[in-house]
Design brief:
Low-confidence stretches: none
Strand order of the largest sheet: 5-4-1-6-7
Radius of gyration: 20 Å
Order of helices and strands: HHHHHEEEHEHEHEHEH
Number of helices: 10
Helix content: 40-55%
CATH topology of the largest domain: Rossmann fold
Number of strands: 7
Shape: globular
Structural class: alpha/beta
Number of domains: 2
Largest sheet: 5 strands, parallel
Length: about 250
């Protein structure tokens, strides 16, 4: 199945699109009590998922792996740092060939550059994820960005993977040749539970280094109680990871 088809299926099955479609279906069946109730429930859930305070509390439950601490690094003795791609942006006219890293990937790359400088570790960039066979692999684009913009060279590129399980498997195949088994793994906090699990299943010893937390324990602000489109985007990501964890247990 193509990457585009998979994305469309995810978009239709996960919130907020799935809730909006069910609410519309309920309104079309408005003369029936079940249809009206379904529309009310779905619209109420859409409203709740638009509130940052609700989505942040959800994220706090899911983003259970804490930020990397300096105290954890020394006894672990990592041999390399692996950063996982999070997507490519194909509508960027200000960049060559209108292609650049998606903001998710850029956040991961930025943190990987910071850690590589602090820990003195070589980097493996992992990600294929292209729409067409001739597109530049995500790993190559990550390597270019790290080298050109963050002045941090990449030691290895893994350009074949199209999902998290393949990130882990193909990275293991590559680094095993160099006797590397203990890694610092960089990805976003919402993605880390599934990513760390897959990399451990592939045979790595993993020290998680999550970044870009959706939930946080800071003080609640007035704006957290007001609807925000970004909360819908974050609810999609959290639902995607929860269902993805369940699906991976069945498939892999």
């Amino acid at each position: 199945m193509s990457i585009v088809a998979i994305y469309v299926i995810k978009l239709l099955l996960l919130p907020p699109t799935s809730l909006a479609m069910l609410a519309l279906a309920g309104l079309l069946l408005g003369k029936r009590k079940r249809g009206k109730n379904m529309a009310i429930v779905c619209l109420a859930l859409l409203w709740l998922l638009s509130l940052p305070i609700v989505v942040k509390q959800w994220a706090l439950l899911w983003e259970r792996i804490p930020p990397l601490s300096a105290d954890a690094v020394q006894p672990f003795k990592p041999q390399a740092l692996v950063v996982i791609g999070g997507g490519i942006e194909y509508s960027a006219p200000e960049y060559p060939e209108q292609v650049t890293l998606h903001v998710r990937t850029l956040l991961r790359v930025r943190y990987a550059a910071k850690l590589a400088g602090e820990l003195g570790l070589p980097i493996l960039a992992s990600g294929g994820g292209t729409l067409e066979p001739d597109d530049i692999p995500e790993a190559e684009l990550m390597a270019q960005t790290l080298d050109n913009e963050f002045k941090t060279p990449v030691a290895w590129q893994e350009p074949r993977s199209s999902n998290t399980a393949e990130n882990a498997r193909f990275s293991r195949e590559l680094l095993k040749q160099f006797g590397i088994n203990k890694i610092v793994l960089v990805t976003q906090a919402y993605h880390m539970p599934r990513a760390a699990l897959e990399f451990r299943k592939a045979g790595f010893e993993v020290l998680p280094a999550p970044t870009a937390f959706i939930g946080h324990a800071g003080e609640t602000r007035l704006l957290d109680w007001l609807p925000s489109p970004s909360s819908w985007a974050n609810s999609f990501l959290l639902a995607h990871e929860m269902i993805g964890m369940w699906w991976y247990r069945i498939r892999y």
